Amino acid sequence: MVNTADEKKSEKLELARGCVAIYVGQERKRYQVPLIYLSLPNFQQLIKTSQEDVFDVKIDGPITLACPTHTFEQLLKIAKKTTHY
Question: What is the pLDDT of residues 40-68, one digit of tens each?
Answer without folding.
Answer: 999 988 888 877 655 555 666 678 888 99
